[in-house]
Amino acid sequence: MQENVALIRARMKTPKAAAVAGILFSGLMFVIFVLLRRSIPADPLEPGVWLGADTRQIEMALNLVPVAGVAFLWFIGVLRDRLGQQEDRFFASVFFGSALLFLAMLFVAAAVTGAVTLLASSTKSGELIDSAAFHFARATAYIILNVYAIKMGAVFMFSTSTVVIYTGITPRWIAYAGYFLALAVLIGSYYVGWSFAVLPVWVLLVSVYILIDNLRRP
C-alpha cells in the first residue's frame, strides 16, 4: 500500500517538474537570444566592430547557456520518466540523441563566441578584428548554431511530437504545432534569424500545458 502511494505521488510530481524545467529553459533562452542579438550583429560577415564596445551583455548571455542546458536536460529526464513503459525505443533514441546533439552544439557555439570576446579583451584594439582567426571563428559559431544546432532542435521537435501522438501525454494539436514549427525551422533556419527562438517557444507551450493540466487534477 505504501509503495502504491509513493508511486502515485512521484507520478504527480513528475509533470510539474517537467513543466518548471521547461519554462526555466525557455525563459533563459529568450534572455540569451535578446542579449546576444542586442550585442552581436546577425550578419556572420560583419567586420566585428562590436568587439570594441562593452561586451558585458555577451558575457552574461554566455554564462546563462550552461544553466539553460541543465534545465533542458532536466526537462528531458522528467518527460522520459512521465512516459515510463509507453516510451518507444526507436523514437526515444532519436528524441534523446537529438536533444544531446542540440545541447552539445549550443555549448560549442557559445565557447567559440566566448573565446573571441576573451581574446578581444586581452589584445590591442583592431588586431583581432582584422585577423583571419576572428572571421573564421565568427563564421564557425554562426554555422554551428544557425545550421546544425537548430536542425537538431527541429529533429527533437519532430520526435517529441510523434511520441506525444502515440502516448497522448499532451493534446494532438500541440504535436501538430511541433511538426509545423520543426518543418519551418528545417527549411528556413539559415535564412531567418529568429529560428533560434522556435524550440524554446515550443518547449514553453508543452510545459505550460503540462503545468496547467497537473494543477487541474485533484
How would you explain this protein's 3D organization?
This protein has 218 residues and is mostly helical. The protein has one domain. The protein is 79% helix and 0% strand. It is built from six helices and no strands. Helix 1 packs antiparallel against helix 2. It starts with a helix and ends with a helix.
Helix tally equals 6
Distance between the termini: 20 Å
Domain module tally: 1
* Major β-sheet profile: none
Layout of helices and strands, plus pairs?
Elements: H1 2-39, H2 56-83, H3 89-122, H4 132-167, H5 172-188, H6 198-216
Helix pairs in contact: 1-2, 1-6, 2-3, 3-4, 4-5, 5-6
Short description:
This protein has 218 residues and is mostly helical. It contains 6 helices and no strands.
Can you tag this structure with a few keywords?
mainly alpha
